[in-house]
Design goal:
Blueprint: H1 3-20, H2 27-37, H3 43-49, E1 67-69, H4 73-83, E2 87-92, E3 101-106, E4 109-114, E5 125-129, H5 133-142, E6 152-155, E7 158-164, E8 170-175
Helix pairs in contact: 1-2, 2-3
Protein name: Bleomycin resistance protein
Domain VOC: 60-176
Keywords: Antibiotic resistance
């Protein structure tokens, strides 16, 4: 039973009790009296402020996990694991000679990499809000990766560090 339903039940009981003493009150007066007993100005305020203990379920979302298309496991591991510093969360193949689906993570940033044809379009861009972008830039430059030496670009909306994987996908790291 919700708090509002309990308050209405209290008003009904109050009316019944007063009627036994030959003091008739309307239901609305009983609701007003109960609202004041509960510390509210009037019934309208009480009905708006009383907690609903049986709220309707709301649609909620957790964080999204982008899926990026890859074509070569060795190149993907070299870029995402060795260069960007991700660690492998899981690997999945339906059979040994079938495409790889790889989950990776770095400090809360989760990505899924897929060799499956229908999972993602090559050449995608993902936008990653972050902190301490200079540390990431310095770390990446220190690795002297042969296929990219990213630097920070100052935009009106933040500092941006873009990296391109061997499959045409772009990760746009941004610090506001």
């Amino acid at each position: 039973m919700s708090s509002i339903q309990k308050a209405k039940q209290m008003a009904k009981s109050l009316r019944a009790s007063l009627e036994k003493r030959n003091q008739e009150v309307s239901h609305s007066v009983a609701l007003e009296l109960v609202a004041q007993q509960l510390g509210y100005k009037d019934w309208n305020v009480a009905s708006a402020m009383l907690p609903d203990e049986n709220p309707q379920p709301a649609v909620t979302f957790d964080k999204s996990i982008p899926i990026l298309r890859i074509f070569d496991e060795t190149k993907a591991r070299e870029f995402y694991i060795d260069f960007l510093g991700f660690s492998v969360e899981f690997e999945h193949r339906f059979e040994a000679d079938l495409p790889l689906y790889l989950g990776i993570n770095r400090n809360g940033l989760q990505l899924h990499l897929s060799e499956h044809h229908g999972d993602a379009s090559p050449g995608s861009t993902i936008f990653v809000p972050m902190q301490n972008i200079e540390i990431l830039r310095d770390e990446l430059l220190g690795k002297r990766y042969g296929y990219g030496r990213p630097d920070i670009v100052h935009q009106g909306w933040g500092q941006v560090l873009e990296v391109y994987d061997p499959f045409g996908n772009r990760i746009r790291f941004c610090q506001s």
